[in-house]
Amino acid sequence: MATKKATRKTKRTETEEVDAIFEGVMHCEPAIPERLVDEIEAWAQSQEFGIARRVGLVVATKAGDWFKTLSEDTDTARTMCETLPALKSQVEALRNLADILSMAETRMAVALCNHMEFDAATQTMMEVGHA
Questions:
Q1: How many domains does the chain have?
Q2: Is residue 111 part of a domain?
Q3: Residue-range definition of the domain harbouring residue 58
Q4: How far apart are CA 57 and CA 61, in angstroms?
Q5: In this structure, are residues 53 and 90 in contact, taking their beta carbons and an 8 Å threshold?
């Protein structure tokens, strides 16, 4: 079976790939509108978020015997079942927030790589003596 050999026109070099990523960041649109910053902060500090987060964290401390009780006790099951949609919603919202923050981190790292003093391994600026 004959295979096609990649030509220079169809295959970018690593440098071209890096340049394309850099240029993409330099010309990107905002990941979110500015108005969402305050909305996201308000949500993260809201009582609703706090309750769902706390329930999830407390449940994470439970061992199998607690889950056995949950599976057998109707009153406990009803109480916990009421919190399940809020917890599921928080998980999805936190995943979305993590995606936004990850995008911001990546864009910052790409932009900082333009600085000779930026150490990509430690993601810090190196001290460079200036005369």
A1: 1
A2: yes
A3: 36-119
A4: 7
A5: yes
pLDDT tens digit string along 32-66? 999 999 999 998 888 888 888 999 999 999 999 99
Whether residue 75 lies inside any domain: the answer is yes
pLDDT for res 131 = 45
Q: Please indicate, yes or no, if residue 54 is contained in any of the structural domains.
A: yes
Query: CA nearest 111: which of 98, 123, 96?
Result: 123
pTM, to two decimals: 0.72
| Structure-token match 């401390």, residue found | 61
d(CA 131, CA 47): 54
Closest CA to 77 of 87, 65, 68: 68
Looking at the domain assignment, is residue 115 inside a domain? yes
**pLDDT, tens digit, 9 for 90 and up, residues 72-103:** 999 999 999 999 999 999 999 999 999 999 99
User: Nearest Cα to 40, choosing from 105, 98, 106, 102?
Assistant: 98
